[in-house]
């Protein structure tokens, strides 16, 4: 908004500016009748007049005259000029980037740059420079100058030495060289280079200190005075010279427009290697609008001079020019729609850079920082530091072996963009010495920048370049993820999935190994990802095999897709084999869509399965040579027989089929090991019930499990048991009834709809299975047998049919005793007969009930079953619940414990009563694995697995034990009784 020199605004500036050459205003009165738009105080000079009167601004005056601005600057207007006197110009002619030695050598374009870059088209005192509209004080550090984007444009002959130095060396610029004899290149067209400025109010408003400015200007700490103001590279020596048409601020040197960060890095011979990396991302952008605007601005109606090759230099980046509200700011395609395989954090050539959102004055309030290592620092890092891993992998492909620049040129973009991005800092106010501790890497860990790391500082129009004497590398360059990043041939799929789904921050984290934390990343090659079997299809008649593929021509989240086939398991080889042609393709990690005329679904199936895949190949504890079983991020367990090439790795499925995966390569990284695998770790198809049912020694326990109501093969609409179709062995079910018992003892809510809860839910567990001999011991203690259950069922029938009672729940009481027995054999947390697992007290699946008020003191807990509940459990906020039974009110206590002593040679258990039992040593009866899945989707006779999502899953270690576990001496007490006609039930 242009400033009007009205009387009130003039008075306001006089107040804000402080003592503004008061002697010049001795005879001036800010009367309400004085109209500055038509009249002027007689004792005020204008900008042009003041410069003329002083006598030592001849160079400034010549610029004004030669550019035809003398009338404008001699009349009432609204300008701010940062004026250098003739002594400053004399110093400028001695040394300047243009090589001019006198005023006469200046070109017309250079004159425009000198004048317009030192002028703002609004009047500002030094105190008001940092004030935004509102007014909001202390927030502005950049303002548009009087420059336009057409004041500085490079025109180069395509094959000239100048073009060789200016134009990036990549295929996109090579193409426009071949197409154009000469090229008009805007280094940016978002805005002309703005002025940067720092005053004391901006420092206060952003909690900066004076020494921060000294650092930015490469001057000793303490140089800056408390009220000193700096503009671009100049220091204001005489501020707030008030004129009729604005302000003059005298500066100590000639002001030139600042380059953007990309140009600063490109022009500095000490940073040429790092610049070559950045310039890979450069892209020539062109539009008909820009072409027409340039030609009209430069040549008017003389169409014979119109240029054709007019381009804007931009960079593939996550943020670039293009929108005022930060939407669609990414540059990920060229003008032909071709995507790029990597991306910078922000466009370093974007003059109007702002960090995010639609701030009040986004461009004005901050700018960026780039840490840029010198060539010497890069060479040392490449040969002796963290870059050596990349060198060893790609150096052999260099055109000139042994030449660092040539070796780096051989490294893919998708490897090196991480290096640039960690050194792109989005806010200067958080990246000056007083805030160096706030500079974090991509994992939100300190980057540990110090002032001694910075060789010198160069101010740019969109940010500041810190030239460093060391390379600050991303955490991922030394993490377990790095092999996937560096080897773009074999790991494109996993690397892309990790990046898109934000697993990179997780895998790059620095872990405290003293706590046992660490990673083992079991990364399958691209070829290994041609055999992923969808866990959802485990529960269907036909399983489905997914072949993951990668399409580099797509945008980032579209690059992975999966062709899906029906498949069968070859019982001889244990391998999955495709059955027929492809049935559909799953694609797009952002929105689940399908080709072959399949309708889109509401949730993202591809993302869902990729997360399942990633969760099961990331081990979350450090490697221990005495340990074989390890927990993954997805709470499954894998068996790792070693971390050498050729070692075997067993997921639950691989264990089930005796078809282990093979370690192809090993990387020892900062936060763990990366093991390259020939396929993905997968969960077993077997649920707990299926696992138990197949073992004769577990048949007695399975009979109890099957008949106590703990198996669900007909779940609610939001669950789907992922087991073989028709076998009746679903996920373990917790028989509860918060309302009517309902037909067939299936749980119902008060409204009569089915309500399912589960004994296992989205965690990892151990289940101890008493062998048949151990079950005989349990029966001897009083555990009801299946014959006892049959007698109770007959008793119920007699009570209802023969005696006319309303209902009898004796069989339900027997089932409840059986179910509680099962619950106490389920342990939270998986343990295996193996080294590395902690002994201690573990929670069981059976929770103690504590009476708080009872109407019948003679009733014991053993007399109560879930069918006595007359209301929904009420949470107490401390992890317990209040439950109202027919006989009174109870509070759920803690789960009954199991004391576990575990080692590589065996497991000994001590139950609540002090009895001991042992995991049997018989092969095939210990360290068994089971998985249970909960699936969400719309169910029906035509349902297909691609329509469903894995909601959660549980993994279970299954062991046979030689004696039953018992939590109470009254545990097996129950009564056969009819229900009284008068009992009111919900």
Radius of gyration: 38 Å
Going across the major beta sheet, what is the strand order? 2-1-9-8-7-6-3
Q: What is the total number of structural domains?
A: 4
Oligomer: single chain
CA-to-CA gap between the ends? 72 Å
Task: Find the structural class using helix and strand composition.
Answer: alpha+beta
What share of residues is helical?
10-25%
Number of discrete helical segments: 28
Question: What does this entry show, briefly?
Answer:
By secondary structure, the chain is an alpha+beta fold. 24% of the residues lie in helices and 22% in strands. It has 28 helices and 40 strands.
SSE topology sketch:
Layout: H1 7-16, H2 47-54, H3 58-66, H4 70-73, E1 79-84, H5 86-94, H6 108-116, E2 119-120, E3 142-143, E4 154-157, H7 161-166, H8 171-179, E5 182-186, E6 195-198, H9 200-205, H10 210-216, E7 230-231, E8 234-243, E9 246-251, H11 261-267, H12 272-279, E10 282-285, H13 288-299, E11 310-315, H14 362-365, E12 368-373, H15 375-384, H16 388-394, H17 404-409, H18 413-422, E13 424-425, E14 454-459, E15 463-468, H19 482-486, H20 492-500, H21 504-508, E16 517-524, E17 532-533, E18 543-550, E19 560-569, E20 576-578, E21 584-587, E22 593-594, H22 605-615, E23 618-621, E24 629-631, E25 637-640, E26 648-650, H23 652-657, E27 661-669, E28 672-677, H24 688-693, H25 699-707, E29 764-770, H26 772-781, H27 786-802, E30 807-808, H28 810-823, E31 826-828, E32 840-854, E33 874-875, E34 881-885, E35 888-902, E36 907-910, E37 916-918, E38 928-936, E39 949-961, E40 978-979
Parallel strand pairs: 1-9, 5-11, 12-15, 16-28, 29-39
Antiparallel strand pairs: 1-2, 3-6, 4-5, 6-7, 7-8, 8-9, 10-11, 12-13, 14-15, 16-23, 17-18, 18-19, 19-20, 19-21, 21-22, 24-25, 25-26, 26-27, 27-28, 29-31, 30-40, 32-35, 33-34, 34-35, 35-36, 36-37, 38-39
Helix pairs in contact: 3-6, 11-12, 15-16, 25-28, 27-28
């Amino acid at each position: 908004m242009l400033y009007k020199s009205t009387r009130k605004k003039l008075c306001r500036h006089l107040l804000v500016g402080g003592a503004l050459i008061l002697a010049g205003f001795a005879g001036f009165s800010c009367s309400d009748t004085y109209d500055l738009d038509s009249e002027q105080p007689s004792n005020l000079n204008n900008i042009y007049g003041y410069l003329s009167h002083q006598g030592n601004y001849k160079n400034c005056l010549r610029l004004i005259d030669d550019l035809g601005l003398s009338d404008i600057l001699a009349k009432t207007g609204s300008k701010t000029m940062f004026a250098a006197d003739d002594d400053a110009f004399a110093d400028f002619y001695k040394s300047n980037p243009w090589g001019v030695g006198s005023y006469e050598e200046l070109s017309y374009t250079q004159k425009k740059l000198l004048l317009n870059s030192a002028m703002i088209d609004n009047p500002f005192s030094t105190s008001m420079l940092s004030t935004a509209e509102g007014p909001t004080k202390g927030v502005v550090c950049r303002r548009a100058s009087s420059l336009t984007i057409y004041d500085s444009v490079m025109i180069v002959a395509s094959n000239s030495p100048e073009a060789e130095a200016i134009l990036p060396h990549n295929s996109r610029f090579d193409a426009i060289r071949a197409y154009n004899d000469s090229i008009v290149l805007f280094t940016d067209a978002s805005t002309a280079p703005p002025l940067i400025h720092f005053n004391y109010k901006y420092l206060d408003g952003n909690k900066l200190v004076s020494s921060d400015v000294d650092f930015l200007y490469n001057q000793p700490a303490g140089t800056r005075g408390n009220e000193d103001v700096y503009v671009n590279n100049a220091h204001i020596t005489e501020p707030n010279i008030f004129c009729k048409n604005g302000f003059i601020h005298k500066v100590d040197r000639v002001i030139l427009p600042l380059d953007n960060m990309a140009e600063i890095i490109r022009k500095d011979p000490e940073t040429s290697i790092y610049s070559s990396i950045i310039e890979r991302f450069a892209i020539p952008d062109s539009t008909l609008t820009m072409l027409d605007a340039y030609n009209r601005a430069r040549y008017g109606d003389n169409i014979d001079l119109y240029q054709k090759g007019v381009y804007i230099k931009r960079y593939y980046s996550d943020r670039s020019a293009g929108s005022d509200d930060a939407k669609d700011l990414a540059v990920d395609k060229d003008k032909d729609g071709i995507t790029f395989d990597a991306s910078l954090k922000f466009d370093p050539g974007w003059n109007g850079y702002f960090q995010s959102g639609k701030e009040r004055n986004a461009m004005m309030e901050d700018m960026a920082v780039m840490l840029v290592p010198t060539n010497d620092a890069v060479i040392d890092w490449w040969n002796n530091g963290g870059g050596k891993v990349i060198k060893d992998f790609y150096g052999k492909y260099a055109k000139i072996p042994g030449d660092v620049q040539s070796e780096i040129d051989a490294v893919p973009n998708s490897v090196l963009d991480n290096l640039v991005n960690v050194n792109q800092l989005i806010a200067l106010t958080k990246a000056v010495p007083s805030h160096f501790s706030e500079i974090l890497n991509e994992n939100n860990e300190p980057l540990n920048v110090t002032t001694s790391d910075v060789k010198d500082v160069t101010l740019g129009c969109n940010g500041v370049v810190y030239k460093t004497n060391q390379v600050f590398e991303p955490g991922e360059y030394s993490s377990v993820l790095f092999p996937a990043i560096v080897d773009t041939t074999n790991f494109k799929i996993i690397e892309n999935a990790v990046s898109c789904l934000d697993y990179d921050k997780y895998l790059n984290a620095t872990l405290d190994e003293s706590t046992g934390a660490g990673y083992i990343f079991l990364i399958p090659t691209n070829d290994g990802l041609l055999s992923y079997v969808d866990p959802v299809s485990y529960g269907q008649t036909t399983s489905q095999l997914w072949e993951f593929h990668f399409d580099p021509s797509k945008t980032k989240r579209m690059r992975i897709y999966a062709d899906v086939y029906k498949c069968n398991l070859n019982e001889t080889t244990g391998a999955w084999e495709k059955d027929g042609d492809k049935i559909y393709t799953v694609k797009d990690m952002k929105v689940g869509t399908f080709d072959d005329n399949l309708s889109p679904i509401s949730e993202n199936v591809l993302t869902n399965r990729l997360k399942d895949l990633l969760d099961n190949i990331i081990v979350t504890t450090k490697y221990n040579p005495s340990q074989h079983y390890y927990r993954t991020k997805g709470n499954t367990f894998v068996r790792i027989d070693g971390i050498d090439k050729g070692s075997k790795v067993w997921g639950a499925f691989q264990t089930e089929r005796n078809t282990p995966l093979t370690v192809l390569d090993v990387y020892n990284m900062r936060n763990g090991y990366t093991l390259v695998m020939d396929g993905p770790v997968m969960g077993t198809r077997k649920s707990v019930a299926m696992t138990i049912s197949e073992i004769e020694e577990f048949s007695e326990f399975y009979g109890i499990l099957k008949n106590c109501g703990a198996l669900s093969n007909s779940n609610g609409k939001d669950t789907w048991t992922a087991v073989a179709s028709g076998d009746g062995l679903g996920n373990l079910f917790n028989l509860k009834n918060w309302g009517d018992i309902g037909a067939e003892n299936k749980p119902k809510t008060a409204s009569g709809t089915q309500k399912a809860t589960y004994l296992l839910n989205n965690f990892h567990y151990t289940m101890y299975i008493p062998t048949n001999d151990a079950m005989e011991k349990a029966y001897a203690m009083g555990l009801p047998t299946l014959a006892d259950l049959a007698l109770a069922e007959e008793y119920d029938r007699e009570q209802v049919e023969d005696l006319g009672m309303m209902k009898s729940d004796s069989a339900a009481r027997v089932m409840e005793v059986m179910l509680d027995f099962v619950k106490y054999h389920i342990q939270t947390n998986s343990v295996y007969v193996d080294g590395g697992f902690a002994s201690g007290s573990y929670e069981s699946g059976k929770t103690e009930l504590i009476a708080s008020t009872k109407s019948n003191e003679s009733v014991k807990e053993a007399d109560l079953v879930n069918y006595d509940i007359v209301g929904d459990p009420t949470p107490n906020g401390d992890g317990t619940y209040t439950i109202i039974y027919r006989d009174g009110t109870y509070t759920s206590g803690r789960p009954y414990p199991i004391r576990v002593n575990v080692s590589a040679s065996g497991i000994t258990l001590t139950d609540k009563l002090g009895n001991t039992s042992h995991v049997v040593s018989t092969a095939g009866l210990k360290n068994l694995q089971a998985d249970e899945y909960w699936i969400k989707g719309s169910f029906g006779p035509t349902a297909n697995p691609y329509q469903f999502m894995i909601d959660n899953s549980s993994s279970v270690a299954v062991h046979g034990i030689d004696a039953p576990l018992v939590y109470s001496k009254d545990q097996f007490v129950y009564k056969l009784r009819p229900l009284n006609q008068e009992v009111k039930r919900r």
